[in-house]
Amino acid sequence: MSELTLHQAITQFLERLAQENALGPATQQAYERDLKALAQWCDKQNIAHIQQIDTHAIRGFAASEHRRGLSPRSIQRRLSGIRRFFKTLRQQGALKADPTEGVKAPKVKRKLPETLDIDQVLALLNIPTDTPIAVRDRAMLELFYASGLRVSELRALAWRDLDVAEGLVKVLGKGQKERLVPVGRHALAALGDWRKHQPVGTEHLFTNPAGRQLSVRALQKRVAYWSQHQGLDQRVHPHQLRHSFASHILQSSGDLRAVQELLGHANLSTTQIYTHLDYQHLAKIYDETHPRAKKPK
């Protein structure tokens, strides 16, 4: 292993990830892009073997990506895959030191997720169910908001994952981690109506008229379509419904740990961004109601 070229080491690393099946397809593809970008840069620097790559080289690569126009967030994402690659090499004994240690990407200004307020959500969900497609889409929208699912999670759902009696759905999230998420009564009723329109024996929850599983892109388009059809002042995407779910739960309960579990976040720090949304909500209420906060008329 220690005599492998960088390209050989990358090939073996990606093959091992595929065999372990511990990452989602999107994450694995991102790692492949990250490492190919590093390999291309190293080729230009005449760096052929993994032992030639040190901290100075990794910093040089990150700087070149920045000059190429990549955003700080994209560089952080790129370094994430590269860190995992070198950590694995060190664990295997191929390297004595990890060249990514101490390398930092440019700071990213944290952007708060866009959410819908309750009235906007209700307007979006209250679609006319006069066609089978509309019945399906109503069930899809209800489930997005009721359970805070990622679009890839919702797409993968099969009827066997839904426990109607308990009001739960089994979700396969990032890193192939399973979690149980509650499904509200409105979503359950909408799903029941939709199932009556599907052919008997259909496996997946959301399918096209031919019975084939909908793609992620198709789901995104349907959410965008209904946001425009229902007169919302913005084009809504599925992740906004997930953000809205989290924000509304946190505003009502204040239980950050519960929101973390419901969303399937591995780290609480990922969930904490919703506390900023909650503080914004509280600040708005304060400004509108506190006698000493009101501006004189």
Task: List the main descriptive attributes of the protein structure presented here.
DNA polymerase, domain 1, 13 helices, single chain, 297 residues, three-stranded antiparallel sheet, hpI Integrase, Chain A, 3 strands, 4% strand
Number of helices: 13
Strand content: under 5%
Low-confidence stretches: none
CATH homologous superfamily of the largest domain?
Answer: Intergrase catalytic core
Mean pLDDT: 86
Detailed description of the structure:
A hairpin with a 5-residue loop joins strand 2 (168-172) and strand 3 (178-182). The chain is mainly alpha-helical and 297 residues long. Helix 1 (6-20) packs antiparallel against helix 2, helix 2 (25-44) crosses helix 4 (72-91) and helix 6 packs antiparallel against helix 8. It has helices at 6-20, 25-44, 55-67, 72-91, 118-125, 132-147, 151-156, 185-195, 216-229, 238-253, 256-263, 268-271, 273-289; strands spanning 162-163, 168-172, 178-182.
Provide a compact summary of the structure:
The protein is mainly alpha-helical and 297 residues long.
SSE inventory with pairings:
Layout: H1 6-20, H2 25-44, H3 55-67, H4 72-91, H5 118-125, H6 132-147, H7 151-156, E1 162-163, E2 168-172, E3 178-182, H8 185-195, H9 216-229, H10 238-253, H11 256-263, H12 268-271, H13 273-289
Antiparallel strand pairs: 1-2, 2-3
